[in-house]
């Protein structure tokens, strides 16, 4: 984390927010909409496998609101995807910053025509286009796009980011003087108390909070360990919007001495997945909410923390005496809330006595039917590694249980499972690991029930990034293509739509050809849409749709229609 102020000044209670705002231009960027800013989401919110990296600006629950350039610059990148940002526009500004506008429907006419031309030349709807400074210059307040709900959006809004052009780090756009009216302080709900040792080998005690005036009070805590750590469940709010928002910063004091703090003002995309260690992943999986930690576990390398010493936020209560506890929560507007209470330590707990896999170390397991390899960066905290194998005569392998899904993995691991029967050569490219996979880190991706695996000398092999159940299966079923328009006479229709789904893995290839020439379909979830334009003149046409999955199972669908 950038050192805005030394720790002794932080202890005096000087505002990180004020210092951050002094470092960022305050009158340079304008509101990219022409309606007042109301937030549906803010910077640094904890999301599945990632921090939210922008401000979600409400658009009155409507699409196609005009979006304007926040400052002078040039369009440096267009990104088109069915997940994540959806249709996104990047503008590079001469003052060293880049703004991003996501979930758009369309761009301004000149840019939209250029995009469509490039899509047909490349015969690809999705992808990234990087542009030169002189191609599409823009002025502050110029119309650049129309808002929408493309990509991973769950409702109409504009995702807005400000990035450092040089480092590509995302910065908290709420610190740049945008007209955001916010007089509400964060609202803490609960505090989690952790003992020493791995967070995955204990169950934290959750303490609800009692409001007392402007403060929130903790009950008197008597810990069962001489060393403890704390996490906080809290939301922030603003006027005019009921949406819960993320907290900008927290500070932890023991007897008025600052012990630990973090501030979410700058996020490095390379560190984004550390949200799984910044917040307690297991409590979130148990539907308890995002408990954000005021301590660092061994495999968490996010840079947004500051600690008093090398204890990484652990509180030493070995003297057995009661100590005053104080947690300060702050939002980007400077509104502050305080949690106060007292805590007394207990006796030191013994270390784990199991076959442990320690964070920061590689791990390898080999049996006659199983091989599992992980790198040193796979774990966030130590675990007592547990696995089991269960015979499954009707399957192509034993059922392998690796730990549990409530323990996260940071990086890919290599899993190999021996097949329990001979495999015909024709099926060697059709192996899958049957394993429930949730939607990916960037929202908009669909969950799936299996992932493709390769065959090598009687073993199924694949990279996996979650613990849980794995068993080898065969996937020979191609994606299902279902036309959504009724009938074949489309003289009055505005669009042609297809739903394409796969029974086990995911749809990896989609191609549409109209009378032998590539046709641009837009993907949203599992639905592919072509909007009639000059590429489909009146008359009778032959449309061929081809779709394939992760195991190269492919299906063609021929659709003849009259326009």
Task: Tell me what the structure shows.
- The structure is a single chain.
- The chain is mostly beta strands.
- Helix content is 6%, strand content 44%.
- It has four domains: 145 residues, Glucose Permease (Domain IIA) (Distorted Sandwich); 118 residues, Immunoglobulin-like; 119 residues, Chondroitinase Ac, Chain A, domain 3 (Sandwich), CATH 2.60.220.30; 83 residues, Immunoglobulins (Immunoglobulin-like).
- It is built from five helices and 48 strands.
- The strands form nine sheets. Strands 1, 4, 5, 6, 7, 8, 9, 10, 11, 12, 13 and 23 form a twelve-stranded antiparallel β-sheet that branches. Strands 16, 17, 18, 21, 22, 25, 27 and 28 form an eight-stranded mixed β-sheet that branches.
- The radius of gyration is 27 Å and the shape is flat.
- The protein starts with 6 loop residues before the first helix and ends with a strand.
- The N terminus is likely disordered.
What's the layout of helices and strands?
Elements: H1 7-11, H2 16-23, E1 39-41, E2 46-47, E3 50-51, E4 55-58, E5 66-68, E6 73-80, E7 87-92, E8 97-107, H3 109-122, E9 127-130, E10 137-138, E11 143-147, E12 157-164, E13 170-171, E14 187-195, E15 205-208, E16 210-212, E17 215-217, E18 221-222, E19 227-238, E20 241-245, E21 249-254, E22 257-263, E23 266-267, H4 275-278, H5 281-285, E24 291-293, E25 305-307, E26 315-316, E27 322-330, E28 336-344, E29 356-357, E30 363-366, E31 370-374, E32 383-384, E33 387-390, E34 399-402, E35 408-418, E36 431-437, E37 448-452, E38 454-456, E39 459-466, E40 468-474, E41 480-483, E42 495-501, E43 507-514, E44 517-518, E45 522-524, E46 527-531, E47 540-549, E48 554-562
Parallel strand pairs: 17-28, 18-28
Antiparallel strand pairs: 1-4, 2-3, 4-12, 5-11, 6-7, 6-9, 6-10, 7-8, 8-11, 8-12, 12-13, 13-23, 14-15, 14-19, 16-17, 19-20, 19-24, 19-26, 21-22, 21-27, 22-25, 27-28, 29-32, 30-31, 31-35, 33-34, 34-40, 35-39, 36-37, 36-40, 38-39, 41-42, 42-46, 43-44, 43-47, 45-46, 47-48
């Amino acid at each position: 984390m950038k050192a805005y102020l030394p720790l002794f000044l932080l202890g005096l209670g000087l505002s990180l927010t004020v210092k951050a705002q002094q470092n960022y231009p305050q009158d340079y960027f304008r509101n990219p909409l022409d309606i007042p800013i109301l937030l549906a989401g803010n910077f640094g919110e904890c999301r599945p496998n990632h921090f939210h990296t922008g401000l979600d600006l409400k658009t009155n629950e409507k699409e196609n609101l005009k979006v304007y350039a926040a400052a002078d610059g040039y369009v440096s990148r267009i990104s088109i995807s069915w997940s994540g940002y959806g249709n996104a526009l990047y503008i590079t500004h001469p003052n060293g910053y880049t703004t991003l506008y996501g979930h758009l429907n369309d761009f301004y006419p000149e840019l939209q025509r250029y995009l469509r031309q490039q899509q047909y030349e490349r015969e690809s709807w999705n992808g990234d286009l990087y542009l030169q400074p002189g191609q599409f210059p823009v002025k502050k307040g110029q119309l650049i796009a129309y808002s929408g709900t493309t990509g991973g959006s769950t409702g109409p809004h504009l995702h807005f980011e400000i990035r450092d052009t040089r480092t590509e780090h995302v910065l908290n756009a709420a610190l740049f003087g945008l007209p955001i009216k916010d007089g509400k302080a964060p609202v803490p709900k609960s505090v989690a108390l952790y003992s020493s040792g791995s967070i995955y080998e204990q169950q934290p005690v959750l303490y609800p909070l009692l409001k007392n005036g402007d403060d929130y009070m903790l009950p008197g805590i008597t810990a069962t360990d001489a060393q403890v750590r704390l996490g906080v469940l809290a939301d922030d709010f603003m006027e005019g919007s009921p949406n819960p928002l993320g907290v900008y910063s927290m500070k932890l004091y023991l007897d008025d001495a600052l012990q630990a703090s973090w501030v979410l003002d700058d996020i490095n995309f390379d560190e984004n997945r550390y949200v799984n260690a910044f917040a307690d992943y297991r409590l979130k999986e148990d539907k308890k909410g995002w408990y954000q930690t005021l301590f660092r576990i061994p495999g968490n390398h996010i840079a947004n923390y500051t600690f008093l010493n090398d204890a990484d936020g652990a509180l030493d209560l070995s003297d057995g005496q009661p100590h005053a506890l104080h947690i300060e929560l702050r939002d980007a507007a400077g509104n502050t809330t305080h949690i106060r209470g007292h805590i007394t330590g207990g006796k030191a707990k013994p270390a784990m006595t199991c076959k442990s896999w320690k964070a920061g170390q590689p791990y390898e397991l080999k049996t006659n039917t199983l091989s599992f390899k992980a790198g040193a960066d796979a774990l966030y905290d130590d675990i007592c590694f547990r696995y089991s194998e269960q015979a499954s005569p009707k399957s192509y392998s034993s059922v392998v249980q690796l730990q549990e899904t409530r323990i996260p993995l940071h990086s890919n691991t290599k899993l190999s499972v021996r097949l329990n029967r001979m495999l015909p050569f024709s099926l060697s490219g059709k192996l899958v690991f049957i394993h429930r996979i949730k939607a990916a880190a960037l929202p908009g991706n669909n969950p799936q029930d299996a992932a493709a695996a390769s065959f090598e000398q009687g073993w199924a092999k694949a990279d996996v990034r979650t613990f849980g159940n794995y068993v080898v299966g065969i996937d020979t079923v191609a994606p299902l293509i279902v036309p959504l328009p009724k009938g074949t006479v489309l003289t009055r229709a505005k669009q042609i739509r297809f739903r394409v789904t796969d029974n086990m893995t995911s749809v990896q290839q989609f191609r549409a050809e109209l009378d032998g020439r590539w046709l641009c379909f837009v993907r949203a979830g599992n639905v592919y849409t072509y909007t009639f334009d000059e590429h489909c003149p009146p008359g009778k046409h032959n449309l061929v749709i081809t779709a394939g999955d992760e195991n190269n199972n492919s299906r063609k669908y021929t659709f003849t229609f009259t326009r």
